[in-house]
Amino acid sequence: xxxxxxxxxxxxxxxxxxxxxxxxxxxxxxxxxxxxxxxxxxxxxxxxxxxxxxxxxxxxxxxxxxxxxxxxxxxxxxxxxxxxxxxxxxxxxxxxxxxxxxxxxxxxxxxxxxxxxxxxxxxxxxxxx
Length: 129
Hints:
Layout: H1 2-30, H2 38-62, H3 66-69, H4 72-93, H5 103-128
Helix pairs in contact: 1-2, 1-4, 2-4, 2-5, 4-5
């Protein structure tokens, strides 16, 4: 049940932060046509997504209780499952992102990996303080 609680917290935080990101940044600034340059995509899409993944990973890691958080694989599964599942869902719903030659797949995977790493690092820094 501890993993399920972590996953639920991660999903709730991810959904809420992505909703805020979509309503405040994506819809008004990007619009349905997308962005025109790599810099704009980085600033308006990928960096806000990175913040969402970091917050979801950090929240899920924070509710993972003490006896199990010292097991690295279990703690990684508790903290990173929600963002990873969201990535799989994104790839399933948007097959245009699956092009290995396109930058969208690699940027999306980089955001996932970096966000999970930073979220776990924040958890470690706060937990040991």
